[in-house]
Amino acid sequence: MxxxxxxxxxxxxxREQRLWTxxxxxxxxxxxxxDHGDTTMPALGHLTHxxxxxxxxxxxxxxxxxxxxxxxxxxxxxxxxxxxxxxPANEKARPGTPxxxxxxxxxxxxxxxxxxxxxxxxxxxxxTAR
Length: 130
What we know:
The protein is mainly α. The protein has helices at 6-17, 22-35, 44-56, 63-73. The protein has a domain at 6-73. The protein has four helices and no strands. The chain is elongated, with a radius of gyration of 19 Å.
């Protein structure tokens, strides 16, 4: 069973947004497969070529790889290709809609996160004067 070629377009956009090469994504797919006990993955070069074909829409993506890609990209397996999107600036997010924020920090950098809601006072930032 294969998914639509629109999934390949989405996959390429997600990969490029993360600044990953096809080889980077292929390595992540192989690792996700290993993490799930799947030891029957093709060689890195073959999987990289498959990614090229999927992104072009030349071949559909099988359920097996679609699930691994959903795992890697943090998308629910039932709905890859429809990632969470922010509400437009003039709209409020619907209650119960997950909000996904990805921040990639260099190794050795620590960060703190404070979640505020509209109308809350701005958070205090250490080392800044008001």
